[in-house]
Amino acid sequence: MEITILVFGQIKEITGIAAWQISGIKSTEELAAKLVMQFPELALMKYAMAVNKILIQTDTELNENDTVALLPPFSGG
Amino acid sequence: MYSENTNQRYQRQILLKEFGEAAQNKLGQAKVLVIGAGGLGCPALQYLAAAGVGTIGIIDFDTIDLSNLQRQVLYSTHDIGKSKVDTAILKLKALNPEIQVNGFPIRITNQNALELVRNYDLVIDGTDNFPTRYLINDACVLLNKPLVYGAVLRFEGQVGVLNLADPITNIKTNYRDLFPEPPDASSAPSCHEVGVLGVLPGIIGLMQATEAIKIITGIGKPLYNKIVSYNALENTFYDFQISSTQKSRKLIPFDELSFSNFNYEWFCNGSSNAPEISVEEFDALRVSELITIIDVREKGELPTVLEFPCKNLPLGELETFLPTLNTVNKIVLFCKSGSRSVKALKIVKAKFPHSEAFSLAGGIEAWKKYNFKMTS
Questions:
Q1: CATH code of the domain made up of B274-375
Q2: Does the ipTM surpass 0.85?
Q3: Strands A67-71, B100-104: pairing kind
Q4: What mean pLDDT, rounded, does chain B reach?
Q5: What is the predicted pLDDT for the residue at B374?
Q6: Quick one: pLDDT at residue B4?
Q7: Which CATH number fits domain B4-247: 3.40.50.720, 2.40.240.10, 3.90.226.10, 3.40.50.300?
């Protein structure tokens, strides 16, 4: 099962790439934990998470070909 | 109903069959408040004034700096050192003398925000820091004003329409549905620290002006409950649908008085010098993170607290228990009315000077009173 991850702003600074695919992840919480293992700095980041462009607030099941996007807050104006 | 000049000034947009004189009239009657006359505010102000928004308010306490001119194109090199608000008024009035421009060369705070926002139909957020963004959001929620949000950093920007109900679903969302908790300063740098491409606030600020014009005139479909993220390097857009959350309702001060008591600096930076927190701040903190709550009253003292988990360590015994205290989380100490907990705070701070510990102002009595009022 493959899902696409998109990251924005400061999160992209941490991951180094803006988009990639991973497989074997069943839920958004599992994904968040996996990302922190891979990029420990993410543990300190606040971000909004969207599955297929809809923001989620609780652990959400992931399905084949879902796209998960991580959007950090910006303050600049 | 227009003078010949007026008609000529707006001729190109009145000519649009979806727009016409009706939309132009709506713009003329509209009152828009632009908070922050910087990178986002400048382009928004210029086009809103040019389009004929009848009343424009501008809030900004700052003066013009040479480093602003790369993106704040309303100002000129000879304006350096002058007030942004005063300069913006002169330039906008020169551009369009038919409109009213009100300037507020002040900092927006929890003491003046409601009074300022109340007089306008719509707010454009062009500020550059999180405390002010949360403050503006909450003020707009309390006063039921649509908020056109915009933010930029480096090569990316965000724009969205908050606190405006989608006419089909009737759903209305706000900034706290998107980002319930502010980020740590270290994980969310400012443009001042990491830079911004000059054209980017121009693009986002103009999208904000576009959304404002759509909302006022009723043409098109505003970005209700949506944030669009724009990447200038890739020239790509990605949108996020926001859902209304229970959590955001708990985080927003529930009335005007609690708004004026909510310390936004503290909420966003967590390390303000004030060792006391209000009941509103305490509730926001409990919802947003794991904290250690200590009841320093004597055992069995009333009222009993069952609403949240806390440890009972009476003031007299506090010192004995201190070595076992977990100082990783923030600590909130409370007593009946807030005076013993200030003493307890001094004891904790003496032992752990770097701990983030607070005393609950007004004690558990104030908290019960506040929460009773909320639920009754």
A1: 3.40.250.10
A2: yes
A3: unpaired
A4: 91
A5: 66
A6: 66
A7: 3.40.50.720
